[in-house]
Design goal:
- The chain has 64 residues and is an alpha+beta fold.
- It has one domain.
- It has a two-stranded antiparallel sheet with strand order 1-2.
- Strand 1 and strand 2 form a beta hairpin.
- Keywords: Membrane, Transmembrane, Transmembrane helix.
Length: 64
């Protein structure tokens, strides 16, 4: 973002400030990154959690 903001500047009384187009470009980049993140989340496969019963030696002895 810093590269985008500093590459498009306007000089005002000797002070360089980012142009409106630079801010617009940053917002578009941020929106695209958010959309890409949302798509990645949607592509994650959700499965049913498997339940496993683990018997310890104490538990096995009390059953037998």
């Amino acid at each position: 973002m810093a590269i985008v903001l500093t590459s498009q500047t306007v000089s005002n009384n000797g002070i360089s400030i980012p142009d409106e187009a630079a801010f617009r470009t940053c917002f578009i980049i941020g929106a695209a990154a958010a959309l890409a993140g949302a798509l990645v989340v949607l592509l994650i496969k959700r499965g049913k959690p498997e339940t496993h019963v683990v018997e310890t030696s104490e538990h096995a002895e009390s059953i037998a």
